[in-house]
Amino acid sequence: MKKGELIAEFAKRTEMSGAAANGAVNTIIDIITERLKKGDTVGITGFGTFSVAKRAARKGRNPSTGEAIKIAASKTPKFSAGATLKSAVNPKKK
User: Which end of the chain, N or C, is more open, meaning fewer C-beta atoms within 10 Å of its C-beta?
Assistant: First the structure.
């Protein structure tokens, strides 16, 4: 599902206009992004937790030349699925 499809489904389920649904989805994405930029964690009970993980500096290799390179330390967004989402994706068999 792409963002446009998500917005269309959101509009349909909430009976909002497409423009209002687009604004709502973009606002949620903006809030999560702003909080992660500040280093905060965003948890949505049952769905999951968005956080920032730190990657240490390390050595790597250029795949074309085989030359050793330094890879700088960085931060990366991380998502951990919540219990409700996990059980929806992996339902227990009877």
Answer: C
Nearest to 48 by CA among 3, 92, 86: 86
Provide the residue-wise pLDDT of the chain in tens; the chain has 94 residues: 999 999 999 999 999 999 999 999 999 999 999 999 999 999 999 999 999 999 999 999 999 999 999 999 999 999 999 999 999 999 887 6
Q: Is residue 66 part of a domain?
A: no
Domain that includes residue 34, residue range? 1-38
pTM, to two decimals = 0.80
Phi-psi domain of 46 (left: phi exceeds 0; alpha: psi -120 through 50; beta: other): left
CA pair distance 60, 50, nearest whole angstrom: 28
